[in-house]
Amino acid sequence: MNADAKTEIKGRERYRAGVLKYAQMGYWNGDYEPKETDLIALFRITPQDGVDPIEAAAAVAGESSTATWTVVWTDRLTACEQYRAKAYRVDPVPGTPGQYFCYVAYDLILFEEGSIANLTASIIGNVFSFKPLKAARLEDMRLPVAYVKTFKGPPTGIVVERERLDKFGKPLLGATTKPKLGLSGKNYGRVVYEGLKGGLDFMKDDENINSQPFMHWRDRYLYCMEAVNHASAVTGEVKGHYLNVTAGTMEEMYRRAEFAKELGSVIVMVDLIVGWTAIQSISEWCRQNDMVLHMHRAGHGTYTRQKNHGISFRVIAKWLRLAGVDHLHAGTAVGKLEGDPLTVQGYYNVCREMKNEVDLPRGLFFEQDWADIKKVMPVASGGIHAGQMHQLLDLFGDDVVLQFGGGTIGHPMGIQAGATANRVALEAMVLARNEGRDIAHEGPEILRAAAKWCKPLEAALDTWGNISFNYTPTDSSDFVPSVSVA
Amino acid sequence: MRITQGCFSFLPDLTDEQITAQVEYCLGRGWAIGVEHTNDPHPRNTYWEMWGNPMFDLRDAKGVMMELEDCRKAHPQDYIRLNAFDSSRGLETVTMSFIVNRPDNEPELRMTRAESRGRGQRYAWETQR
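Output (structure tokens, whole complex):
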């Protein structure tokens, strides 16, 4: 592409009917310095063969803001230069020929306050189907403080959740009730009671437990709350069960949430697939009703996993923190589901930090000031077990819910024993870490020592001690060689 | 019944040496430690009695251990816990809490049920000795 093709055309020539390059229309400006109030998006783009990366970046900026394929004179009725998003930087992706990181800045006026639906309709509305690109992925986003402040964020947040639960200084423990489909309400509540009595803080509905023929939602809620309250009575602890309120309509979701409240539940959950507007609505309801909101990221893998196309989960996590969830499944690094340790730690930092610094190995491209919006509790769930406790604590610290579904319910001595094994492993590891021991290396030894007086832990280690999920991650940083734990 | 509130209730009761190590961990992070006691371990009993204010500006774990010893002498049959407070912006809450004394005979929490709308129950717990 010659220099002219990359230069904005000004004045009358700009608005002559016909087709111009996106860069010529003003969607590329290599000298642009983003304002503090600009929203910045970082896309990974793979232009079609022969398409200049700068023109491709300009097209991304154009198609995610004001442009259409041809010149329109009606632009001249508006302050159109301000509405145009501006691609201002294009870097080749290290070690990946044909892919480019392109930075696009958007003026704040482009977005409605407090609406993730509006934000996403702009930024990911059209551009991902755009023919001149083979693929595009939204890698990261810098949200200006002025925009962050238009969102209420998590209804409860880590600090208040811990105060309500009266649980401090160590990760929370949970488990998903299994099998996830087929149990009657009464059988289901049995699993909840056993897990909580055995030592877990939370039990959980799975993403696809709603109100199927084998178990009506009201039955499940009633039996689960009997289990939760009974378990509190025999342990002296506050306990909870994430009652999934996901349903076909918002009206039905509210109906279920109201019943959960009436029964005294401290927490409800929704699935990511209910959509942004429903998430913001149920978040508002939770805020009005003192309810912790658990978000299960069902479906995200369809667009977050492949590196060349889709949306990085770190962006989804940022949107969810704005939209307002209290718990968010953010990966385990060591379990059965996708995610290399550094990339997953990047998601956790998005959930929990007051301010994110630039951290390329963890996939954080921008400084992000969260303007005191509450923190989201990340949830590690999927194929983890007591034998990994040292790794989990070392990777994620205290503010996380560790969920051992199979690792509790599949225990050879029963569900209570499975829960106890996890709880003892966790407390022994926290104690050792606080005493200054190097848990990353001494972990297995610390677990074995605790197993000497705790039979359930011994059985858990004997059953799962050697299980690991060692596959090469699909989605890892472009800036350091990827390492696997386990 | 063993009440399992706090960080380490599933472990054997901590020795004073172990408690000292945890206190040192807290002090090393700039947290202030408060000693609290109660005879009512109800899960919603938020405000246990304070054995003095949290100990700000304390550097030596011995200070906490002396207060704990005094509290144990005065209330040997109470639950006693150590709470660590972090005053950093964005936290400003308790960051760690663990039980360091229990009565010889721990109470039961009796659950009562009352009929409510539909098949719902109103649950309550009562501490019983």
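The first helix of chain A runs from residue 23 to 27.
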